[in-house]
Design goal:
The chain is α/β, with parallel strands linked by helices and about 400 residues long. The chain has 13 helices and 12 strands. Strands 1, 2, 3, 4, 5, 6, 7, 8, 9 and 12 form a 10-stranded mixed beta sheet that branches. Strands 10-11 form a two-stranded antiparallel sheet.
Length: about 400
C-alpha cells in the first residue's frame, strides 16, 4: 500500500523532466489534437491574390435580369436578352431564374444583384391593394413594354365555365409567379371564389388527372411552352374568359385558336381569354449611382441592338414590341426616356438632312447652308451626350 505514493511521485518527476528537457519541450504531447483545434486556412480572396482589377471589371458591367421559372416565357426573354446584348467585358447580362413576375417586383426592391426584371403591368394592382410597398409607382419604373401575354385557365372535363370553379380547387402555380396576381384579380372581378392552392404547374397537371385539382391558372406569351409540350388528356380544355368593362384597366381580349395549340383546340374553334402587357421593369435609381451607370449601358445596348431580338431564332413576340409605346399606370425610367428622345432626335435629324435637295449649281454631295447648320447642331448634341 505504501508503494503507491512513491510510484506517483516518480511519475510526476518523469513528466516534469520531459517538460523541461531540450527542444522537445515546445512540442505538444498530442500534436494531432492541436491541428484539429487550429482554425482552418481560408482560400485567398481576389484582393489577396492581387486580382482586384479583374474582379472590379467583371462586376462593373454585369446586369442581373430576373426572369421566371424554366417553363415560363419570362426566363426565355431574359436568356434572349443575354444572347443579343452580351458584349464580353463591356456588358454581361446575367439571366436569373426567379419565382416569377409577381416576386420579381419584390426582388427589384430588395434583392442584391437584380437590376432589371420582367413582370406584367397588373402586378401593381396587388402591391397597391396590400399597401406593403409605399409609392411603388415612383420606385419601380419601366424601360419598355415587352410581350403581350395570355391568361390560360385549363380545366377538367366537368368544368365547362368559370362559374363551375366556385368553391373548387384551382392552382395558381408556385407562389410569386404572375398567375398568383392575375388569377385572383380576374376571379374577384367576376365574383367567383375558388379555393386557391399554390402548386408547380407540372405537378398540378398530374393532380388534375386524379381529380385533386379542378383547374390551373397560367400566364405567358404564346406559344407557351407549358401547353405546347402538354400531352392531351381526354376532356381537358381551356376555359373561356369573356372580356368585359371590368377588365379595361389592365387587359385586352385575346382569343386562343387552333393555330396556337392545335393539339388542345379543335380546328375551326377558338377560346376567348384575356391578355396583358409585360414590361421590362427597373428600380428608379437616381443619377450618379453605380446602378444607374450600369443601367445606362444596358439601355443603350438594348435600344441600339434591338433588331437582333427580331431574328428567327428568338421568341416571335419580340417582333411585336414597340419601344416607344407608353404603359398606362407606369412611369418610364428617366434613362430610357432620355435614350428614346435621343433616338427620336437623331431620326428627325436624318429625315431633315435627307429631305434637303441640293441647290442649283451645287456639286453633288456638297452640303447646303441648311445641311451644314443641321450637322453642327447634331455635333453639339453629340458632345453633350458624351459628357453625361
Amino acid at each position: 500500500m505504501n508503494a503507491c505514493p512513491h510510484l506517483l511521485a516518480a511519475f510526476l518527476l518523469a513528466a516534469a523532466a520531459l517538460v523541461h528537457t531540450g527542444p522537445s519541450a515546445a512540442q505538444p504531447l498530442f500534436p494531432t489534437m492541436e491541428l484539429a483545434q487550429s482554425a482552418p486556412r481560408l482560400p485567398p480572396t481576389a484582393a489577396a491574390a492581387g486580382e482586384q482589377s479583374r474582379a472590379a471589371q467583371v462586376n462593373s458591367w454585369t446586369v442581373g435580369v430576373a426572369g421566371g421559372f424554366f417553363e415560363g416565357t419570362f426566363i426565355r426573354f431574359a436568356v434572349e436578352l443575354a444572347k443579343a446584348l452580351d458584349d464580353g467585358d463591356n456588358l454581361r447580362i446575367l439571366p436569373i431564374v426567379s419565382y416569377g413576375g409577381n416576386e420579381n417586383i419584390n426582388d427589384l426592391l430588395y434583392l442584391k444583384g437584380v437590376d432589371v426584371a420582367i413582370t406584367y403591368t397588373d402586378t401593381f394592382e396587388l402591391y397597391k391593394k396590400s399597401a406593403r410597398v409605399k409609392n411603388i409607382e415612383q420606385r419601380i419604373n419601366y424601360i419598355s413594354e415587352l410581350l403581350v401575354g395570355e391568361l390560360y385557365i385549363f380545366g377538367r372535363p366537368e368544368i365547362r365555365s368559370l362559374k363551375d370553379l366556385e368553391g373548387k380547387k384551382v392552382s395558381l402555380g408556385t407562389k410569386g409567379g404572375s398567375a398568383t396576381t392575375t388569377g385572383p384579380i380576374v376571379f374577384e372581378r367576376l365574383g367567383i371564389r375558388p379555393e386557391f392552392v399554390y402548386i408547380n404547374n407540372t405537378v398540378a397537371l398530374e393532380k388534375m388527372k386524379t381529380g385533386e385539382i379542378d383547374a390551373i391558372v397560367s400566364t405567358g406569351g404564346k406559344p407557351n411552352d407549358l401547353f405546347v409540350k402538354l400531352k392531351p388528356e381526354p376532356g381537358f380544355h381551356f376555359i373561356p374568359v369573356e372580356y368585359g368593362a371590368q377588365f379595361a384597366d389592365y387587359y385586352l381580349p385575346c382569343p386562343l385558336s387552333h393555330a396556337d395549340y392545335a393539339h388542345l383546340i379543335p380546328e375551326g374553334e377558338s377560346v376567348d381569354t384575356l391578355c396583358m402587357s409585360a414590361v421590362l421593369a427597373v428600380y428608379n435609381f437616381p443619377r450618379g449611382t453605380d446602378q444607374a451607370r450600369r443601367l445606362e449601358r444596358f439601355i443603350r445596348y438594348y435600344f441600339e441592338r434591338f433588331d437582333r431580338l427580331k431574328q428567327p431564332s428568338f421568341h416571335p413576340k419580340w417582333k411585336d414590341v414597340n419601344l416607344a409605346a407608353k404603359v398606362p399606370g407606369w412611369n418610364r425610367y428617366w434613362l430610357a426616356a432620355d435614350k428614346l428622345a435621343a433616338m427620336e432626335r437623331t431620326a428627325s435629324f436624318n429625315d431633315r438632312l435627307s429631305a434637303k435637295p441640293a441647290r442649283a449649281g451645287e456639286a453633288i454631295g456638297a452640303q447646303s447652308p441648311e445641311q451644314e447648320a443641321l450637322f453642327k447642331e447634331f455635333l453639339t448634341w453629340m458632345k453633350q451626350q458624351e459628357k453625361r
